[in-house]
Design goal:
The complex is a heterodimer. Chain A is α+β, with helices and mostly antiparallel strands. Chain A has helices spanning 2-14, 70-87, 120-135, 204-209, 211-224, 242-254, 259-262, 334-339, 374-379, 430-435; strands spanning 19-35, 38-56, 59-65, 104-108, 142-158, 163-181, 184-190, 197-199, 229-230, 234-240, 292-295, 318-323, 326-327, 349-350, 359-360, 365-367, 383-395, 401-413, 416-422, 425-429, 437-440, 447-456, 461-469, 472-479. Chain A folds into two domains: 2-227, PmbA/TldD fold, CATH 3.30.2290; 229-483, no CATH class. The relative contact order of chain A is 0.14. Classes of the chains: A alpha+beta, B alpha+beta.
Chain lengths: 485, 343
């Protein structure tokens, strides 16, 4: 890997790039799935390539190739240079980057059990056992189980002299029980929807999740939902389960704090942000008890947003985003930090692969835990709804007005869970919602969830992000509007 | 370097040399794409990528698996064949697994335009500059993309199937913004000459200017006129549900509703890969020729689309909409994006 990278870097510098960096990435994936008693997908892939970023004539250029011959690498560099010169034809000012130091280091994320060493037959055996448990329940019409393993080996070089090698293993696992009855489809997912739970760790995640032990309960809930009452329409107190709150954080905090969105870079695609620059340090984003951080450091946990250095060679950092309810931080890059006069990037530039430029992406954007257990919070709630596991999401392009649906809910009356509810939904305005938060459960209820497929950029790229959350209560929230007539 | 038919055949010869499976399939692709992105009336991201990929599927004793790589040296081809076979052997047999299809006949589609393949970064930048000048003429802020690319898809199998398709693509999209209003326009085509970016820029600018100072109205039911892109956004949510497998597995909103009138009489929806505005190869992930399918006629849900295995389960003929195997989704209905809506 280093040979290709050094060749590219030297070529870029000799061609006049005032800044140049190279990422060489070797990515391996194994994806396994079963459906209704049969193996559905058994596939592996590997991909090796490099991407070169340059600044020439005050503007960016990027080119990527998997042709790692001498000619192929040099051709890629010349393309990046040509592109940068073209960019300079339509610019208002030269690119400035916040300073960064030279770093030579290597880091490997902890991994106890290499998932690629676990026999595929063992994985399939486990998935088919889970599948069988799900389909024991009458009215479960579709059972789907999946395991997803990724190994990412990246070398970063820059003309600052930086040389950083990072190796990460990521694992994802989960299942869905779908029930079709009448003309209604209900489903329940474990441990989370849209593929399950993902973290930067090895096969030990699969063992921790106890997929088999949770299958009967999840299947029974999927089938039982048809007979449940619809979530009522109105205004009430809502307790969000940990995984649903993780997505709430992702959509209504994580995205609007991306500084490139604030500055208009995503206006034609992913959208902009209501968090205009004047709000930094002034906006009362949330209630006083709410504290949110963007923490990429390994100390935060094995999140999908955990690393040692971002894809510009900036060290991972823990940035306060909301402190005691006040908005205090954006996610930045070297270019955007300089744009708003900050001394340093807080290390949030990440690229999906060797063929994509790094963009500002969430790392682990997490709600810090409060106190107490979920059952205590329910006991403390006189009248409300507890909602669990995301089913749908909708939010405007500035991240202000949202509506979410969950798979299941329970009504709370006088401190007790009563009837199960189907098709729960809730909505609101981001800052009003977060300012209505009056209780957050403690560390014993906190989970660092993984969202594996956050999309952004043109050409589009997906990225894994982490979101830690404990269940929390929000007062006087509009509910049930998704199905209101 | 783009993949030629001869190079693809040569790669497949090597795959066959190293594969000891009962049946072997190779899906070989190459792509070269460039994209110039602008925001705040400046080019802020400008990228190009190229790559090739080999994906091998092996079948041994009714078991199948797939492995992919972008390393195309002989040693890597041997390794990927061995890996695929090893993966396939690790699974339980699937009695419903069909034999790979034999040679097919494909209708010719011509989607390669050299002007799109050769569009340079400078040419894209000049076009963006003109769009920005249009924005600045009315005090607007512009953001958007101008992209072009070449894609090659080749599919071979050990039963003699051979499919090859190359095409170019181009896209221009632009958002114009001014104090609380915005306008958007977009066009895609295999030929960049057909995009007319200046027309799109002007349309987006007019929409931004004409939508300034919008008024509130009460929530309620209104007659609305939707642009084609908005119609697609609305109808696009349904496209997963026209797949035969999703109906068979009862996860489609069309379950038990095929043959019913679910839309207005003025609504007809057709899946037609041969339409002159369409993109993509004339064959699916197994090499089956794509068929033109009338999904909705005069508001009635008429037909679904089927991959081979789903067609067999449901007593239908395959329509050429399958994903590469193995997959659990069935027909590649939504991701094809080849619908036309007429009214």
């Amino acid at each position: 890997m280093k040979e290709y990278g050094v060749l590219a870097l030297d070529a870029a510098t000799s061609q006049g790039a005032v800044y140049a960096d190279v990422r060489v990435m070797d990515i391996r994936q194994r994806y396994l799935s079963t459906k209704n008693g049969e193996t559905a997908q058994v596939r592996e892939s590997e991909s090796l390539g490099l991407g070169v970023r340059v600044i020439v004539n005050g503007a960016w250029g990027f080119a990527a190739t998997d042709d790692l011959s001498h000619q192929g690498v040099l051709g890629c560099v010349l393309k990046a240079i040509e592109i940068a010169k073209a960019s300079a034809l339509v610019k208002k000012k030269d690119i400035r980057l916040a300073p960064e130091r030279k770093i030579v280091d290597q880091w490997e994320a902890p991994c106890q059990i290499d998932p690629f060493s676990v026999p595929v037959s063992s994985c399939i055996d486990l998935m088919l056992k889970v599948d069988a448990e799900l389909r024991k329940v009458k009215n479960v019409t579709l059972a789907e189980v999946s395991l997803d393993f990724n190994h990412i080996d990246q070398l970063f070089l820059s003309n600052l002299g930086s040389e950083i090698r990072q190796i990460k293993t990521q694992t994802g696992a989960g299942f869905v029980a779908t029930s079709f009855a009448g003309n209604e489809i209900q489903r329940r997912s474990y441990p989370n929807s849209f593929g399950g739970q993902y973290q930067t760790k090895g096969y030990e995640l699969v063992e921790e999740l106890d997929l088999l032990g949770n299958a009967p309960r999840i299947a029974e809930e999927a089938a039982a939902l048809h007979a449940c009452d619809q979530c009522p329409v109105g205004e009430t107190d809502v307790i969000l389960g940990s995984s649903q709150l993780g997505l709430q954080i992702h959509e209504s905090i994580g995205h609007p704090i991306e500084l490139d969105r604030v500055l208009g870079a995503e206006a034609n695609y992913a959208g902009m942000s209501f968090l205009t620059l004047d709000k930094l340090g002034h906006l009362k984003y949330a209630a006083d008890i709410v504290n949110v951080v963007a923490d990429a450091t390994p100390a935060h946990g094995p999140g999908l947003g955990t690393f040692a250095y971002d894809d510009e060679g900036v060290p991972a950092q823990n940035t306060p985003i909301i402190k005691d309810g006040l908005f205090t931080g954006y996610l930045t890059s070297r270019e955007t930090a300089a744009e708003i006069g900050q001394e340093r990037s807080n290390g949030c530039m990440r690229a999906e692969g060797w063929n994509r430029i790094p963009l500002i992406r969430m790392t682990n954007v997490s709600l810090l835990p409060g106190k107490g257990r979920l059952e205590d919070l329910i006991a403390d709630t006189d009248d409300g709804i507890y909602m669990e596991t995301n089913r749908s999401w909708s939010i405007d392009d500035r991240r202000y007005n949202f509506q979410f649906g969950t798979e299941i809910g329970w009504e709370i009356k006088h401190g007790k869970r009563t009837r199960m509810l189907k098709n729960p939904s809730y909505g609101g305005i981001t800052t009003e919602f977060w300012n209505s938060c009056d209780a957050i459960c403690g560390p014993e209820e906190w989970t660092l969830w993984g969202t594996p497929n956050c999309g952004k950029g043109q050409p589009m790229q997906t990225m894994g992000t982490g979101h830690g959350a404990s269940p929390a209560r929000f007062r006087k929230v509009r509910v049930g509007m998704a199905y209101s007539k | 370097m783009m993949l030629t038919r001869e190079r693809a055949k040569d790669i497949f010869r090597k795959v066959l040399k190293y594969s000891t499976a009962d049946e072997t399939e190779a899906f070989i692709t190459s792509a070269s794409h460039s994209l110039t992105r602008f925001a705040n009336n400046s080019i802020h991201q400008n990228v190009a990528e190229e790559g090739m990929s080999l994906s091998v599927r092996a079948v041994v004793e009714q078991r199948t698996a797939r492995a992919s790589t972008n390393r195309l040296d002989e040693s890597s081809i041997r390794q990927i064949c061995e890996a695929t076979l090893a993966l396939a052997r690790l699974q339980p047999p699937n009695p419903e697994l069909l034999r790979m299809p034999g040679p097919q006949m494909y209708r010719a589609v011509d989607r390669f335009h050299s002007e799109s393949a050769e569009l340079s970064p400078q040419a894209r930048a000049e076009t963006v500059r003109a769009a920005v000048e249009r924005a600045e003429k009315d005090g607007l802020t512009a953001a958007g993309v101008y992209s072009n690319g070449v894609s090659v898809t080749a599919l071979f199998n050990s039963r003699g199937l051979e499919a090859f398709h190359e095409e170019t693509s181009a896209e221009f999209s632009i958002t114009m913004m001014k104090d609380g209003s915005s306008g958007w326009a977009k066009k895609t085509s295999p030929s960049c000459v057909e995009l007319e970016p200046e027309v799109l820029a002007d349309r987006a600018a007019r929409k931004a200017l004409e939508s300034q100072q919008p008024k509130d109205i009460e929530p309620g039911k209104y007659a609305v006129v939707l642009e084609p892109a908005a119609v697609l956004d609305l109808l696009g949510f349904l496209f997963f549900d026209f797949g035969g497998l999703s109906v068979y597995e009862r996860r489609s909103c069309l379950t038990d509703r095929v043959g019913q009138k679910l839309f207005g009489e003025n609504i007809n929806v057709r899946d037609d890969v041969y339409h002159p505005l369409q993109a993509g190869p004339p064959f699916d992930g197994e090499g089956i020729p794509r068929q033109r399918v009338n999904l909705v006629e005069r508001g009635i849900v008429k037909n679904l689309v089927y991959a081979r295995a789903t067609a067999r389960k449901m007593g239908k003929k395959p329509t050429g909409h399958g994903f590469p195997l193995p997959n659990e989704y069935g027909p590649d209905e939504y991701r094809d994006g080849r619908r036309q809506i007429e009214h």
